[in-house]
Amino acid sequence: MPYFRLSGGRNHIFVFPSGAGAHLFRSWASYLNRSIILTPEGDRADRRNTSAFNTWKDVIIPGNINDAMTTYSSSTVKPIPLSKRKYLANFLGRAQGKIGRLQLTELAKQYPDKLESPELKFSGPVGPNKLGKIDYFFHLRNAKFCLVPRGESSWTLRFYETFSVECVPVILSDQVELPFQNVIDYLPISIKWPSSHIGTELLDYLESIPDHVIEQMIERGRKVRCLWVYASDSQQSCSAMVGILWELQRKLRQFHQSTETFWLHNGSIVNRDS
Questions:
Q1: Which of 1, 167, 194, 221 could form an S-S bond across to 189 if both were Cys, CB 3.0 to 4.6 Å?
Q2: Cα–Cα distance between 237 and 239 in angstroms, integer?
Q3: How sure is the predictor about 219, in pLDDT bands with cuts at 50, 70 and 90?
């Protein structure tokens, strides 16, 4: 759990890459309440049902996906054309006893030709009924839509992985907060569907979307997926770090009527030193 200190007072930046967040500290409300928190989720609450995340000061960041996935799109393994993908949708994950994931399991049993079964194939250590990372990528790319339900918390790495394999993410997590919403419009590159309506109506809706529309969504997704990669500025001008710096820069903005701005009777703004 790294942290950074800004100049002056109690201004600190804490990075919580896991779901536990600031609640790792029982006394977070006393000691971290004025710090900026970088975390992939914004809805984690403690036993008192209070959240450490504050939309006024804190920043949602992308999850750190597997290195092999970040280089996937530039490898010799190319995405499958939409017309040749085997499934309409897939969910390659464990049910974990979560109602949304259990519903997807049952839906896959009813429509095995449309939805790849989450019970048989999911990422994790290689073993019985388990896929290694490379096989997982191959399966993930074989559907037009990748379903992204909530797990232990509202966010999941699968959302970011789908962009590398050029599969349109369908978010099934009502409370999820996505990174860089000040600069990214998620409507043209993803779908968010209410978790209370997981069923045949979801598959019917996805099936009604023409391939040319899906292609447009994928093309728009290509332009922003570099923001999920934690590359240094020396390697890429577009990266998760660049996005985080954008968000932190916004925290330094001044109010319009600040000590540094002056205005005249005609509405023009002048600088002190001009």
A1: 221
A2: 6
A3: very high
Q: Are 90 and 115 a contacting pair, CB within 8 Å? A: yes
To the question of pTM greater than 0.90 for the whole model, the response is: no
pLDDT band at 178 (very low <50, low <70, confident <90, very high): very high
The structural domains of the chain, with segments of one domain joined by +, span: 67-228
User: Is 147 within 8 Å of 122 (Cβ atoms)?
Assistant: no
User: For residue 245, what is the enclosing H or E element?
Assistant: helix 240-251
Q: Give the separation between CA 17 and CA 40, rounded to whole angstroms.
A: 7
Q: Which CATH architecture has domain 67-228?
A: 3-Layer(aba) Sandwich (3.40)
Q: Which residues contact 254 (CB under 8 A, 6 or more apart)?
A: 260, 261
CA dist 243 → 83, 228, 239 (Å): 34, 9, 7
Residue 101: how many other CB atoms lie within 10 Å: 21
